[in-house]
C-alpha cells in the first residue's frame, strides 16, 4: 500500500532531521557540495535531540537497552575520532521509535528522489559507486513506499539506467537480486526463503564471510594470527581470488587492513593517515562490515549484529517482506561498500528501534 505525505506540527522536527541528514549525505561527493553544507549536521542533531526530548518510549525494558546502546554509541563517537555518523545513527534510532513508520518511508522516498534528481542534474557524483549506492537505496525505499502497487516497469527502467551509467558490479548484483525478490514477493516459495533462519542472520553471516575470505585469501594472513600450520586448500584460494578480482580487490584491501591495523575489542584500529599506502600504492577499506569490526571494535560489532538479527526476526514475525529484502540487500552490499554506518545509505536505523519494540511487545502479549 502506498503511503501519503502527511506533515503534522508534532512531526516537524523529525521531518527536519530526515531532511537535513539525507541532504548532507546525498550532496556529499557531488559538484554542488561545499564545506558550508556541514552546518546541516549540527542542525540535524539539534532537531533530533529536541524531538526526542518531547517524546518518550513506553516500554521500560527495551528503553533501557536502547538508551544504553545510545550512550555507548555516543561515547564511541566521542572518543574514537568523533565520527558523527554514529551519533546521527543513534539519534535516527530514537526518531524512528517515536515516528510513524509509514510517514518515515514517505519522507525518505520523496526527499531522496528529489535529492537524487538534483545530484544527477548537477552531473552526478565524483565516484560512480556513490551514485550507484544512493540510487539503489532510493529504489529500495520506492518498493517499501509503493508496496504491492510498485510499478515493475519503472523499477526495471530505473535499475537499467543506473546500472548502465555507473557500471557498478555491486549495484547490478545487489539491486538485481532485490528487484527479483520484490517482483516475486507474493510467491509462497520466496516468502518461505525470506522467513528462513539464514536470512534472519544475514548480517552476521555476511560479516563472517567477509572476515574469513580476507583471512583465507593467502597463507600469510593465517600466519599473522598464529595459524601458520593451517593449510588453505588451493581450490578455496582460487575461488576467493576470483571473487576478489571480480570485486576490484575488495578482499585484498580487507586483508591488508587486517594485517596492518588488526582487530580489537574497542576499535579505533583504522589509521586514515595512511590511506596513501597499501595495495599498489593505494588503500581504502571499502567493506562496511570490516569497517564496523575494525573501526568500532568487537564489542560494538557483536551488539550491532544482535540488533540486526532482532530487526530481521521482527520483520519475519510481522510478514514485512519488504523490510526483509531491504535488510538482506544492505547486508550483501555492505560486504563490498562502506554503507553500513551512515544513515545516508543504511536507512534501517530509522526502523530498527520500532521493529524491536513491536517484536518484544508481541512476544510478551
Describe this structure in words.
- The chain is an all-alpha fold and about 375 residues long.
- The protein is built from 17 helices and no strands.
- The protein has helices at about 10-25, 40-55, 60-80, 85-95, 100-120, 130-145, 150-165, 170-185, 190-195, 195-200, 200-215, 220-225, 235-245, 250-260, 290-315, 320-335, 350-365.
- The mean pLDDT is about 85.
Short description:
With 365 residues, this protein is an all-alpha fold. 68% of the residues lie in helices and 0% in strands.
Number of helices: 17
- Assembly level: single chain
Low-confidence stretches: none
Helix content: 55-70%
Series of H and E elements: HHHHHHHHHHHHHHHHH
SS content category? mainly alpha
Beta fraction of the residues?
Answer: under 5%
Main sheet specs: none
* Count of strand segments: 0
Distance between the termini: 27 Å
Rg computed from alpha carbons, rounded to a whole number of angstroms: 20 Å
Average pLDDT, rounded to a whole number, is: 84
- Can you tell me the overall shape? globular
Sum up the structure in keywords.
single chain; 365 residues; mainly alpha; 17 helices
Task: List the topology elements.
Blueprint: H1 12-27, H2 40-53, H3 60-79, H4 84-97, H5 101-121, H6 128-146, H7 152-166, H8 169-183, H9 188-194, H10 197-200, H11 202-216, H12 219-224, H13 234-246, H14 250-261, H15 288-317, H16 321-333, H17 349-364
Helix pairs in contact: 1-2, 1-5, 2-4, 3-4, 4-17, 5-6, 6-7, 6-8, 7-8, 8-16, 11-14, 11-15, 11-16, 15-16, 15-17
